[in-house]
What we know:
Elements: H1 3-13, H2 17-20, H3 35-42, H4 46-54, H5 62-71, H6 76-86, H7 104-112, E1 117-120, E2 126-129, H8 131-138, H9 149-155, H10 157-162, H11 166-183, H12 188-200, H13 202-209, E3 218-225, E4 229-239, E5 247-252, H14 259-262
Antiparallel strand pairs: 1-2, 1-5, 3-4, 4-5
Amino acid sequence: MDDLGEFLRTRRARLTPEHVGIPSYGARRVPGLRREELAQLAGVSVTYYTRLEQGTSRNASESVIEALARALELDDDERAHLHRLARPGPAPRRPRRRRERAAPGTVRLVEALGVPAVVLGRCTDVLAWNAAGHALLAGHVAHGARPNLTRMLFLDAHTRELYADWATEAKRAVASLRLLAGRYPDDPPLAELVGELSVKSAEFAALWSRHPVANCVSGVKRLRHPQLGELDVEFQALALPDDSGQRILTYTGEGLKLLGAVG
């Protein structure tokens, strides 16, 4: 399915005529605004909007994208995502496939931090973590393992039990992965991860179909840790200043000092 069309349809479905202040006529087979209604709100022709939804028109003008973003009441992350989908840049040259690795200096930095920290690859693979980060997130796997955090969230029972509010964590993970898919539409490992989870997890497939988008760079996670008990931890995602898509996740909060003994 065309990502632009899917995104427009999901956002159109969440609006109602009453919400946007237009009359509603006749029964509706599906929820949300009709194409004609959204086109009218955005000030574009129905034919042109239909082509955008059907994926037969690309490189819409900036003014049209902005008009659609306003009509659909998109937030900043969704607006940026719409721009990427509607006006894709030239496809980057696909690099030779090789195992993703963290730079030695990044690994040393994470190991030197006094808080739990993890280096994540573009597709949320663990590339490195310090002892506290390992003990906090996945003490049930070997320290030398390099699991995928999104895969574990949906397919690993221990990881599911770790999050006191698993549903919120799952929505956040899918929204972040959707944003990555918009930035790297031709990334084979990312496509493989999405395909695998869509087949193996009905919950992931349902969330993915709603096309959530959010840049999750900070927040609070409520954990139910097997050794530390229930606790809230703050996280920060720090993007590395290169084109790798890698980032460092750090965790802070009361009770985490005990992780040294746990690890």
